[in-house]
Every structure is written in C-alpha cells, then in structure tokens.
Amino acid sequence: MHLMRALEPALQALALSVEVQPDQNWNSALNQIETKLRAMQKSTHGPEDEHWASEAVLQLRAIKNAWRNRAMHGVVRYGEDDAVRIFESVKFFMQTLALRLTE
After folding, report:
1. Which has the closest alpha carbon to 9: 90, 83, 99, 76?
2. Domain-wise residue ranges, the chain
3. Are 98 and 17 in contact (CB under 8 A)?
4. Per-residue pLDDT of the chain (103 residues; tens, 9 = 90+)
5. Closest Cα partner for 18 from 36, 40, 42, 45?
6. Residues 58, 51 contacting (CB under 8 angstroms)
7. Where is 99: in which H helix or E strand?
8. Which of 87, 39, 32 lies closest to 61, judged by CA?
C-alpha cells in the first residue's frame, strides 16, 4: 500500500508533463496520459522519446492493474516475496520517469 501511495506524486508529475489534470482517479488520469504518450512518435518526438513514453505507460498500467487496485481496495495482503517484486517494479518505473521528468 505504501508503494502505491508513493506513486501518486509520480503519477501527478507524469500527468502534468503531458498537460493532463492529475486531480482525478488513477484510471481516468492514466487513460488520458496514455493517449498523450501514445501520440509521441518517432517522426515527431524521436525514437528515444517514443520508447520512453511506451515504457512509462506500460509500467504504470501494469502496476496499477496487478497491485495497486487490489492493495488500495483491501482485496489482498501481500507477503514478503510479493513486496520485493512490487518494490522492484515501482523502483524501475520511478527510474524510468527520472530519465525525462523533474520534480
């Protein structure tokens, strides 16, 4: 649960970076962010930006669907092995964002 809460400022920063209002639920914000990031194409933004955008969206959607929804709605409690896997996924996502975003 704490890792999911730690992602909220990252989601807000990502949303603001693509001109999406971050003050909505995760799914709505993520849908709008995905639309904006998918528009980042090689021809207009370059291959590195396109790759970064694709990776960021994929990671955040996977984290949300696999762990965030279940943890934040009290559906499941995770054990130590799960916590390590979630931590590593969140860490990788944050490192991906840090390549392009600042506070």
Report:
1. 90
2. 2-98
3. no
4. 778 788 888 888 888 888 888 877 888 888 898 888 777 766 677 788 778 878 888 888 888 877 777 777 777 788 899 889 989 999 998 999 898 887 6
5. 36
6. no
7. none
8. 32
Tell which residue, 34, 29, 27, has the closest CA to residue 69.
Answer: 27
- By CB atoms closer than 10 A (0-12, 13-18, 19+), residue 97 is buried
List the alpha helices (DSSP H) in 18-79.
26-38, 42-45, 47-63, 69-72
- pLDDT for the residue numbered 35: 85
Tokens of 49: 């930006």
User: How far apart are the C-alpha atoms of 76 and 103, rounded to whole Å?
Assistant: 32
